[in-house]
Every structure is written in structure tokens, then in C-alpha cells.
Amino acid sequence: MAQTKGEISMIDPSQLLRPEPTFNDKPIDAFRDYTVDDSDPIRERVRRTYYDMHTNVTVDLVKQKRERWLKFNTFKMSIKDALIKLNELVDESDPDTDLPNIVHAFQTAERIREDHPDDDWFQLTGLIHDLGKIMAFYDEPQWCVVGDTFPVGCKWADSIVYGPESFKDNPDTYNPKYNTKYGMYEPHCGLDNLLISWSHDEYMYQFLKHNKSTIPEKGLYMIRYHSLYPWHAGGDYRHLTNEKDEQILQWVLEFNKYDLYTKSTKVPDIEALWPYYEKLIEKYIPGVCEF
After folding, report:
1. Angle ∠(62,67,68) on CA atoms, nearest 5
2. Are 111 and 258 a contacting pair, CB within 8 Å?
3. What does the alpha-carbon distance between residue 228 and residue 285 come to, in Å, rounded to a whole number?
4. pLDDT digits 0-9 by tens, 25-58
């Protein structure tokens, strides 16, 4: 991963080809275009990232990453300082904007604030939802930090980006314990009992629990599953979900209306907004946190 002057270059396929400045009532799949085009270096780079992910992310790897990261002994930092650190993260995958990650965080939070002025926990959720990407500064490859997520330990869903064919070099594809409809799971066991591919989503959810954040449960689940597109957008894995997950689905869909990437060049006045959001941080996840 290339680094220059303290910056880290990271391909983020989950933020590449997202909606234009307005929804225009278009379905999500009208925006998230992963068409293979060898002549387009951006599309090819995104494809390569996902193929690396789908080759390397196995049940064993997810367990290893959970063991490594869920000790929360890598570093200590306040939420504000972590957000500022994330500002050094440069997304080289987007040809239309060179705005740093923190701008997307504030854009998301401010859009939520416009529609939900009384739900300060929701606004803070928008601000910090991608903060788990800070793992990229600690030797995690990009395919293990960003992008859409999916359950491991069962048959790959057709709606996963680039489809089951992209898992042809993944050893779990050929493991009879993992390559059936239910794999290592029981019917309708629920999302909480699934092992999801390692990414910034699960890390941030577990981080907030570990650091005793008082963000409501619905905010935690918005963060935990906002990249699980094969479930909330593709309609897959309903044979594994339960009634509780139907409520979570509504929360995640509400959040993703605001998370969807905008190529708008309108940059919030971050310095002017900090005092407001610092109060929210102090209310819901204060002080120095363990990452």
C-alpha cells in the first residue's frame, strides 16, 4: 500500500460508482455499476480489489482478523483525533473527486441532521460509520478494510459483486463444510450468528461495544451491516435471517439513504461544525478510546 508524507492510498470499491448528487428515485443497482471493462483502469482496479477479497477472505481468515483486532490493543485515541487521522486517507479509486474521507463523514452526518434534527445519535452514527477504515493505517490490505461484505461459511450468494465466479480461487468454495446453502449455520439463526467478512463495519460495531458507547442499538446495527449489500440490497440470505433482522433491515435501509456516496463538490465547513459534533462525541463516546 503506497504511502506518501503520512498519507495512505486506499482503493475503496464501496465508494466508487455511487449515486450522483441526488437520488432521483433510482434503484441502487442503477448506481453501483461493476461492469467489467479491461480498458478502464478504474473499473479494472475495482475488479482486482474484489477478486483479491473474494480469493483471500475465508472462515479462517475472518477468525484471525477478529482475534487480531478485537483485543483493542493496537492504539488509543479520541474519536475526534481518529476522524482527523482518517483525513489522511486518500481514496485513489474515484476519478470524480479527491475529497478526503472526513468530508464524506460530515456530508453524511449533515444530511442526516437536516432530516432528523432531533436524533443526535443518528447524526453521530453518520459521522463515524466509516471510522473503522483506520485499520488501513496498521498494515491491513485494502480488500480487508473496504468494500461490500458477505457471510463466510456458506454458499456464496449470486448478488455478491462479481458473483460466485470471483470466488473460484477461494479454498472455502471447495470445502463441503462451507459450500452448501446453509453451510455451517442453522436455518434462520439470525445475522448475529453469522460470521461476516472482515471489514470496517464489524470492527467499528465491536469497537463501539468495547468502548461502552451509548449510541442506541439501531445506530450500532446501522454501522454493523451498512456494507452487507447482498442482504439489504440483493435480497439474499433470507434463509438465515430471523424476525429481529427484519427490523434491523429497516434501520440499515434508512441509514444507507444518507451513506450513499455523492460526487458533490459542496464541502461542509468542517471547522465550523466541529463544536457541535464534539458535543455529540462527548455525549455518546467520550474520552480516549481503545482501538
Report:
1. 95
2. yes
3. 25
4. 444 444 445 555 566 777 787 888 899 999 999 9
